[in-house]
Amino acid sequence: MWLSLPAHATDPNEPADPDEPGASQAASELEEQKQANNLELQSVEEQAVAATRALAALEADMAALRKDQQDLDQKINATAARRAELDQRIAEGETAMVDLSERQEAVRLSLISRRAVLAEVLAALQRIGRDPPPALLVSPEDALSSVRSAILLGAVVPEIRSETEALALDLKELAALRQAIALERSSLAIALAENAAEEKRLAELATEKAALQAESQRRLRREQARAEALTVRSSELESVIASLAAEIEDLQQAAEAARLAEEQRQQRLAEQLERARAFAATVLPDKNRIAPAYAFSRLVGTLDRPVAGEPVRFFGADDGAGHSLTGEVVASSEGDVVRSPVDAWVAYAGPFRSYGQVVILDAGERHHLVLAGMETIEVKAGQFVLSGEPLATMGKTRFAGSAALTLASERPTLYIEFRKDGQPVDPRAWWKDPRSSGKASNDT
Predict the structure, then answer these.
(1) Relative to the CA of 315, which of 83, 98, 203, 393 has its CA 20 to 30 Å away?
(2) What is the mean pLDDT of the chain?
(3) Which residues pair with 237 in a beta bridge?
């Protein structure tokens, strides 16, 4: 049976240990967070580079699309100009056809107006052709008819010949013009069809280019927004990383300052202990000292028990509950004073579970003394006590935590436990009382 108490107690004015996990763990967590942010920043920067390249490619594509659009606009303008020229040529051909038609109609009307004369001339010519007049020995009537016919033919035929020649020329010219106009119309129709197909193709290309340009514009806006978001995120991460670096540096500086302070404290304590040892080697210990006069390891076989009484259980004995005792039990009397067996700091002073009042002394060199079972305590945690200085007073009842030791004693009992590095050790080596070597039994 032993108490689950702190394994090490120190001076309450002692600064925090720089090797404790608090600062180092915080710095480690901040460092891990910083590394994670660095990885995220690297990823964001890579994405930003990719976004920049995508923006450059989109801008190049849009520049090419704008150039293609300009070329298409020029071709469309040239096609429109050619269409206007063809329309002009068609209009001129229509005008020429109208003029020719008017001339044709005039010739036709002229011929119609002289139809009677021409009929007579043609009839006369027909008669002459069928029954030519005799060249000799003609009757006066026949001669007169011949003369009349000759006079009529002589007057009409030259005019008819000239008009006929002119009409033949006009008709030839009209036929030629009509053929030329027909050819021109055919050529213009083909040109118009090709021009219409070209216009349709150019319009479709222009529509497709416009759609591509609009889609590229939308992609460009998305990439620009993404690049801006990545830039903002990169700036935020850089700010966070800078802040974490500053916090890590502050923690490192604080840890370094704490470490230096601890080293200085340890050095001062070592110097004080060395001076105390040197002083104790030459003179009696100073009652006003604040550190043990002797190292605890040097006090083997020199200590008095904290209270006057009879030891009833020793270290390693059966505690009556099937376990080995990790300390020893001393039977005392009501009102006995419990004194400190060694110079030490009070690491704990107060009630603890069913053990009554408990005092834990830090004797240095990682040694602790646990005293339990008192009724009243006269010291407090953090206080430095000298060897033989009163700590507490025993009460009427025995040590409550040793309920299994009912056969040992009905008197008040003090439980004493020595611990080194948190592990219980046999205290009998430190007592100068020869009874320390005795063995207790249930009937002691």
Answers:
(1) 393
(2) 79
(3) none
Better pLDDT: 422 or 155:
422
Give percent above pLDDT 90 in the chain: 22
Nearest CA-CA partner of 306 in 392, 232, 376, 395: 392
What are the tokens at 34? Answer: 């910083």
Nearest to 44 by CA among 221, 235, 196: 235
**Residues β-bridged to residue 326:** none
**How does residue 393 score in pLDDT terms, banded at 50, 70 and 90?**
very high
Could you give the 3-state DSSP secondary structure of residue 220?
helix
> Which amino acid is residue 352, in one-letter code?
F
Which stretch of 169-183, 226-240, 327-341 has the lowest confidence by average pLDDT?
A: 169-183
Long-range contacts at 194-197 (CB < 8 A, ≥ 24 apart):
195/79, 195/82, 195/83, 195/86
Closest CA to 390 of 434, 435, 436, 349: 349
Summarised one tens digit per residue, pLDDT across range 161-184 is 776 777 677 678 778 877 877 887
Whether pTM exceeds 0.70: no
Closest CA to 400 of 331, 354, 351, 336: 354
Element (H, E) at 170: helix 140-282
369-403 b/e (C-beta count within 10 Å ≥ 16 → b): bbbbbbbebbbeeeebbbbeeebbbbbeebbebbe
Answer yes or no: are the C-beta atoms of 262 and 18 closer than 8 Å.
yes
From residue 232, how far is each of 41, 219, 226, 319 by CA, in Å? 11, 20, 10, 72
Q: Could you tell me the pLDDT band of residue 125, with boundaries at 50, 70 and 90?
A: low
Whether the Cβ atoms of residue 51 and residue 223 lie closer than 8 Å to each other = yes
Q: Which residues 6+ apart lie within 8 Å of 110 measured at CB?
A: 163
Instruction: Name the strand (E) or helix (H) holding 53.
Output: helix 21-113
